[in-house]
Write a structure and sequence with these properties.
binds magnesium ion; 45% helix; 451 residues; binds guanosine-5'-diphosphate; alpha/beta; 15 helices; Gyrase A, domain 2; 16% strand; Rossmann fold; 6-stranded mixed beta sheet; Four Helix Bundle (Hemerythrin (Met), subunit A)
Length: 451
């Protein structure tokens, strides 16, 4: 339970139609009443009613005409008494309201402190709190829809069901350890095995959907690479419909990486143009080439570009686990006969022209297929943060060890019980039931102020 009252702007700093200042905590009503200059309105703020008031500072100097809405505990975002002041959208007015609230006893909220209080007061679990942060940062409609469903508790329900099943399993196992020889449960092994095998499958599905959710929330990294002068920068410009990258017929023009965000079917993509890969003695160009290799290691997809003048002589081994789309660019320079012949000899390559736009639509299609992007991506319930992924992997390992133990001949129920309890702790940590304070603080510190 918090005894102090916090205040913060809930809208971005700047000029706008309105701005919202939020207060939460037991003194909220008292503090706001001191700002209201009309005696009739003081102490009469009706919960969930918008009231037009004149606000003044501690010296009775007018601040603004604002709308005040009071949310009475426990029916508020934080679970505490909470007041939203919608004032004119001027940073000066916002600052003045906040400093006056502080004069009357509030303190400035830490980042994410409103949501942290909501979590502490049982208004939401940690998965839902993380969904709030992801929703605010969503870059696409798909991503916001996924996060909204998490905020509504769809992932939490799934994890709670999983947790309940594991509690059932651990209870059966520990009961067996407590009772005497002649009461032993028949078919215990197969019962527990059936439960954990099903949960293992479900966790596996959640884990494998993580990459998709990460791409939805943070964007997929698509790296354009290849030798110099094959048209990589031109392709970046064509795909992104910009002229971000400088193109030139001089090999080695692009020395640094160029990053352009774009949306493909609602999925955010960071398209990166890189320095052409070749052996070079020039220090600056070599730095660019090293940078290219670093990006290739991190990529979700590599677009490897060649041009018809060139045989595939790249000496670099591309990362094995990253999908690659191989492209032959500049096919507009070919005659019809040459085009046909290259189509047969390089059937695995996509023939395009970054200059004329030939087959660019097909390339976009292939990018989506390779990244497994579809418009229904947000229909799956997935884990969305690396914290959730780490804990779920831990749980998955414990459950798989449990399965191995159950399948081995000895009934090692002590060990099984330890593994299952660790699995339960991991799920508890995802939901915030058993999460250490420093991890909690770390999560909420990443929020914006006023959320
Ligand atoms: N004819 C033709 N020229 C192209 C095409 N794409 C790029 N170029 C030209 O090839 C040269 C090198 O292009 P650039 O994009 O700078 O290549 P990069 O070094 O791989 O980034 C420039 O003169 C471009 O205008 C294409 O599809 N067709
Ligand atoms: Mg270039």
């Amino acid at each position: 339970m918090n005894y102090d009252t916090i205040v913060a702007p809930a809208t971005p700093y700047g000029i706008g139609g309105i701005a919202v200042v939020r207060l939460s905590g037991p003194q909220s009503l008292l503090i706001v009443n001191k700002l209201i200059n009309n005696n009739d309105l003081r102490l009469k703020l009706k919960p969930r009613h918008a009231t037009l008031v004149n606000l003044q500072d501690e010296n009775s100097v007018a601040i603004d005409e604002s709308i005040v809405t009071f949310f009475e505990t426990p029916n508020s975002y934080t679970g505490e008494d909470l007041i939203e002041i919608s004032c004119h959208g001027s940073p000066v007015v916002v600052d003045k309201i906040i400093s006056t609230c502080c004069h009357f006893g509030a303190r400035i909220a830490d980042p994410g402190e409103f949501t942290k209080r909501a979590f502490i007061n049982g208004k939401m679990d940690l998965v839902q709190a993380e969904a709030v942060a992801s929703l605010i940062h969503s870059q696409s409609v798909e991503s916001s829809q996924l996060n909204l469903r998490l905020l509504h508790g769809e992932l939490s329900t799934k994890l709670n069901n999983l947790r309940q099943k594991l509690i059932d399993a651990v209870s059966m196992v520990e009961f067996e350890l407590d009772i005497s020889e002649d009461e032993l449960q028949p078919d215990l092994n197969s019962h527990v095995l059936a439960i954990v095998a099903e949960q293992s499958q479900q966790i596996h599905e959640l884990l494998s959907s993580y990459k998709q959710a990460r791409m939805l929330n943070h964007g997929a990294l698509v790296v354009i690479a290849g030798p110099p002068n094959v048209g990589k920068s031109t392709l970046l410009n064509t795909l992104s419909e910009t002229d971000r990258a400088i193109t030139s017929n001089l090999p080695g023009t692009t020395r640094d990486t160029i990053d352009v965000p774009l949306l493909l079917d609602g999925v955010p993509i960071n398209l990166v143009d890189t320095a052409g890969i070749r052996q070079t003695v020039e220090e600056l160009e070599q730095k660019g080439v090293n940078r290219t290799f670093n990006y290739l290691k991190k990529a979700d997809l590599i677009i490897l570009v060649h041009d018809p003048g060139e045989v595939e002589t790249l000496y670099y081994n591309y990362p094995k686990n990253v999908p690659i789309i191989k492209i032959m660019n500049k096919v507009d320079l070919l005659t019809k006969t040459e085009l046909d012949s290259i189509q047969t000899s390089h059937s695995k390559q996509l023939l395009i022209s970054a200059k004329t736009g030939f087959n660019i639509k097909l390339l976009k299609q292939q990018i989506k297929t390779s990244l497994r992007i579809s418009s229904s991506l947000s229909d799956n319930i997935t884990i969305t943060t690396s914290r959730q992924q780490r804990a779920l992997k831990q749980c998955f390992n414990n459950i798989n060890t449990t399965i191995e133990l159950l399948n081995s001949q000895r009934s090692a129920y002590e060990l099984i019980s330890i593994e299952l309890r660790e699995a339960l702790d991991a799920i508890g940590a995802i939901l915030g039931k058993t999460t250490p304070d420093d991890i909690l603080n770390n999560i909420f510190n990443q929020f914006c102020v006023g959320k």
